[in-house]
Amino acid sequence: MTFYTVVPIEQMFEGAYSSGQQAEEVMICGMLMQVEPLEGRQARIIRLLQCPLDKYLNPAFAPGAVIDYDK
Length: 71
Prior knowledge:
The structure is a single chain. It is built from one helix and four strands; from the N terminus they run αββββ. It has one helix at 9-12, and strands spanning 24-28, 31-37, 42-50, 66-68. The longest helix has 4 residues, at 9-12.
């Protein structure tokens, strides 16, 4: 792959290899989802793993939504 740019290569790939926080699988409201823990009792939804089909259309459970949960 060739990049034709004036941006330094270090800046282009900055953060590409950082590990960040580990994702957890939790069961909330009868749904298994993968979340990224945030501060306090909150988590950001990464993806739904197992849930009823109508829950995929609920914006409260969309990827990126922040939810409250107990660890």
